[in-house]
Write a structure and sequence with these properties.
heterodimer; A: alpha/beta; Aspartate Aminotransferase, domain 1; Aspartate Aminotransferase, domain 2; 2 domains; 14 helices; 39% helix; B: alpha+beta; Sufe protein. Chain: A; four-stranded antiparallel sheet; 8 helices; 4 strands
């Protein structure tokens, strides 16, 4: 059964606003998604009805807040099919989740001469933390390139893997090319070499399969705001054995067991990795977003997004001089392009005057831009509420801009 | 020569005849194409003002306490914004450049380009011009 996009669109209040006097055409979903009413209401309800600090109060409101916060952890656990709720750690976002692993895993398991592997198509947030860790630990930073279509070079990856490889970090979906990487295979290959794996799921968890046990991911990170939830909340999933084996990332309240002048012992996961008063409402909003998705058929969402993506590619390619970046075998949600002789910043700025929101630039993936020998692209990125009408509006606006530029 | 304040007022007047956004940008682009000419010799690594998305070259000279500027960009819109900056600042006494409060970007509705510094380097350009003016007053430049 196909999903009712009109009904879904009505659930996202912002989609009916005007920008520069024009109906908003929101195609910047890889940067952040809009929020459905239940998410906005969950946040308002928290602050209106039961705002309180958690895990420590004896009073009524504190209990309510703690219950909601921990119920959210379970909702997320079920969404990603983690074995235990305590394998779900709340962070500020994907970036903090990756930094946590890069630091704590690095401290425990990475020594001088060891190898750490990432890919050229990783976002800076899944690139720089590992580079920093390698510098700190005296390890080698290895990078798997992609081919001319935007597919990972698994042959090079195979050659890089070895007994010195401690951890492999890669994105399930590229935010700049839309490539869906063969995650199961990448993980299996790493495991065969005895290495752990972190999956950056920031661009995949909302669009494609997101079962951490089916993937056999050791660590899995994503951001709430890219899956229709609030900003400032992210998730790090880690297999229980790894979370027990790596040291804490930050010290403070909540993360301790016993503190004395001589020695401090640490709390168990997840609290071991959640120092200080957490973002209490963030998980509550994120759980509302996941409940909203759970109320739809995920296969239908995937089919709808895929259909709009294919339509978008074919419509964009009708435009003279337009090049699409990212032609991998399996793709999702991203339409990245340039038009001959038109600067991406100009095109993005002028599309905005027509109410069309896209992103321009290098999308925090400078190594990809270097590999493609360009300095940026225009990127239209899709979410479950986008339709063929949005694509038609994008194409019509591009044509108007080209006309204005005398092309 | 008109003062910085007078020139800003003139720019605001010019743009006020163009209510629609596409007209404003068309005019801005036209200004950029007419009024930014940077000799090849000044298109150097040293003259690049780093913006995240567009390249800007800014050449600065100090003559008898006055600031003279030339600029170019690979983006037509940033080129237009640079042309406006040149119109306001180039040929002005360094003292006036330092003190100048750039109000016209907001008045013509283009201040978003100034706030999104990472995107286009416009703010970096303004800062660089002001820093240069400070040296120019001291006579060091």
């Amino acid at each position: 059964m196909a999903i009712d996009i009109d009904k879904i669109r009505a659930d996202f209040p912002i989609l009916s606003t005007l920008v520069n006097g024009k109906p908003l055409v929101y195609l910047d979903n890889a940067a952040t998604t809009q929020k459905p009413r239940p998410v906005i209401e969950a946040i308002t309800d928290y602050y209106s009805s039961y705002n309180s600090n958690i895990h420590r109060g004896t009073h009524h409101l504190s209990n309510l807040a703690t219950e909601a916060h921990e119920a959210a952890r379970k909702t997320i656990q079920r969404y990603i099919n983690a074995e235990h709720a305590h394998e779900v750690i709340f962070t500020r976002g994907t970036t903090e989740a990756i930094n946590l692993v890069a630091f704590s895993f690095g401290e425990a398991f990475v020594n001088p001469g060891d190898d750490v592997i990432v890919t050229t198509m990783d976002h800076h947030s899944n690139f720089v933390p590992w580079q920093m860790m390698c510098e700190r630990r005296g390890a080698n930073f290895r990078v798997v390139p992609f081919d001319e279509n935007g597919d990972l070079r698994l042959d090079v990856y195979q050659n890089l893997l070895g007994e010195k490889t401690r951890i492999v970090a890669f994105n399930h979906v590229s935010n700049s090319l839309g490539t869906i990487n063969p995650a199961k295979k990448v993980i299996q290959m790493a495991h065969d070499a005895g290495a752990a794996v972190l999956v950056d799921a920031a661009q995949s968890v909302q669009h494609i399969e997101h079962d951490v046990r089916a993937l056999d991911a050791d660590f899995y990170a994503f951001s709430g705001h890219k899956i229709y939830g609030p900003t400032g909340i992210g998730v790090l999933y880690g297999k229980e054995a790894w979370l027990d084996a790596i040291p804490p990332y930050q010290g403070g309240g909540e993360m301790i067991d016993q503190v004395s002048i001589e020695r401090t012992t640490y709390n168990k996961p997840p609290f071991k990795f959640e120092a200080g008063t957490p973002n209490i409402v963030g998980p509550i909003g994120l759980a509302a977003a996941i409940d909203y998705l759970n109320g739809l058929d995920f296969a239908d969402i995937m089919a709808s997004e895929d259909s709009v993506l294919k339509y978008g590619r074919s419509r964009l390619l009708e435009i003279d001089g337009l090049t699409i970046y990212g032609n991998a075998q399996h793709r999702t949600s991203i339409l990245a392009f340039n038009i001959d002789g038109v600067h991406h910043y100009d095109l993005g700025t002028l599309l905005d005057t027509h109410g069309v929101a896209v992103r321009t630039g290098h999308h925090c993936t400078q190594p990809i831009m270097t590999a493609l020998q360009i300095d940026g692209t225009v990127r239209a990125s899709l979410a479950l509420y986008n339709t063929r009408d949005d694509i038609d509006a994008l194409v019509a606006a591009i044509r108007k801009v080209l006309k204005m530029l005398g092309r | 020569m008109a003062s910085i304040q007078e020139i800003q007022g003139q720019i605001v007047d010019d743009f006020s005849f163009l209510p629609a956004w596409d007209e404003r940008y068309a005019y801005l682009i036209e200004l950029g194409q007419k009024n930014t000419l940077l000799p090849e010799e000044y298109r150097t690594e040293d003259n690049i003002v780093r913006g995240c998305q567009s390249l800007v070259w800014l050449h600065k000279e100090c003559r008898q306490g006055e600031v003279f500027l030339q600029a170019d960009s690979d983006s037509l819109i940033v080129k237009g914004l640079a042309a406006l900056l040149l119109q306001v600042f180039s040929g002005q006494p360094a003292e006036a450049v330092i003190k100048a409060d750039l109000t016209f970007f907001k008045e013509i509705g283009l201040d978003k380009h100034l706030s999104s510094q990472r995107a286009n380097g416009l703010l970096a350009m303004v800062e660089e011009i002001k820093a240069f003016a400070a040296q120019c007053v001291g006579g060091a430049a």
